[in-house]
Amino acid sequence: MFRAPELYLPTIIGPSSDSILVGFDESRDPTEPPKRSIPVDCTITDDFQGIRLKWTLSSIETKKYYVPNKRFFSLTCKKSDRERVEQRYFPYINKTAQAILSKSESLNIYTYEQDCSKWEPAVFKHPATFDTLAMEPDLKGFIMKDLDSFVERKEFFENVGRAWKRGYLLYGPPGTGKSSLVAAIANYMRYNVYDLQFQSVRNDSDLRRVLTSTTNRSILLIEDIDCSTKVTNDRTKVKENCEEEENDELKHPYGTDPGVTLSGLLNFIDGLWSSCGNERIIIFTTNHKEKLDPALIRPGRIDVHIYMGYCSPAGFRKLAASYLGIKDDKLFGRIDDMIKSVEVTPAEVAQQLMISNEPKVALESLIKFLNTKKDIEEAAVEEKEKSDNEEQESEEK
């Protein structure tokens, strides 16, 4: 309930208000008006259908320096108006707050700051869209259709007793466009992104508080989940080589918490806490799917597994159209054949296409790169075969 008045009240600030806070975002257009917010201990007066209401923002200081002060709104009205406030006014400000969010021209990407224990926003202006992705058309169409279906099936999720959320696992070699796909999904859905790094979370309790503080209609992104050593695959709390003293708060200001466990993460994905919030998308990325605990990626937790593979001829042609502005060239056929025989990522292809604005120069550079890569791969195969043969001969002797 705190988020709704936090968004709504700045829109009704008038000359009679005690004070206001204004701020400018350096990443926004400097000609835009400043962002307004409510300072602590400020009282805002509102009139709704003849009801006089007074809002006051208060704050309680916490004892722990790494826990932010607790803020809350107090609402004052006549006792005779209380029922109308609950039944009409609260739904009104909730609806208004949702409209404010939906009309926001820019998206935000949030990172969790451990020092102040809150999500810090930054303007999200990633240019990736489904039109620019170097992806097979069938896979692209499937993802877009799945996203559309997710948004339209609120009643379905309620009827079957499931939380209104969708989980995706993007896996494949580095440089295959996993982060670009996340950006394209965010732009397509107009959802804010919450980028969670496990090293910024102390324990399961902290994780639960962090995740439940994300908003509806948002994407929770956990990249390189296989590299998150704090999420253990045996669902136990692991302590290794703990040589520091427990009370050394200068070295360990957060105590000796063992960190986030897999059980804590799973409880948010599909446990009781998964119902805290609606219309949320959870995206995991990994370069090594085989390293993930089966409990994390079983059906019901991750709904869709999307393999982000090496560049295909269709992907190359999309990149050529985006980077060079061409849809066909006499060199395309040769490049198509080479891409089929070489493991090359979309990022590597894009890097070569950026060498020059001249299509001929860029395409010839790509051909040279693919030839070199093919020679390296063939040499590696020959070396491995030679090593295997020598090992086999050694065993026979």
The CATH class label of the largest domain is Alpha Beta
Q: What number is the mean pLDDT? A: 83
Could you say how many structural domains there are in total?
A: 3
Number of helices: 12
**What shape does the CA trace take?**
elongated
CATH architecture of the largest domain: 3-Layer(aba) Sandwich
How many individual β-strands?
12
> What is the percent of helical residues?
25-40%
Description of the molecule:
This protein has 397 residues and is of the alpha/beta class. 38% of the residues lie in helices and 18% in strands. The protein contains twelve helices and twelve strands. α6 runs parallel beside α7 (262-270) and α10 runs parallel beside α12 (359-396). The protein starts with a helix and ends with a helix.
SSE layout:
Blueprint: H1 3-8, E1 21-23, E2 35-37, E3 43-48, E4 51-60, E5 70-76, H2 82-103, E6 107-113, E7 118-124, H3 137-152, H4 154-159, E8 165-171, H5 178-189, E9 192-195, H6 204-212, E10 218-222, H7 262-270, E11 280-286, H8 294-297, E12 304-307, H9 313-324, H10 332-341, H11 346-353, H12 359-396
Parallel strand pairs: 6-9, 8-11, 8-12, 9-10, 10-11
Antiparallel strand pairs: 1-2, 3-4, 4-5, 6-7
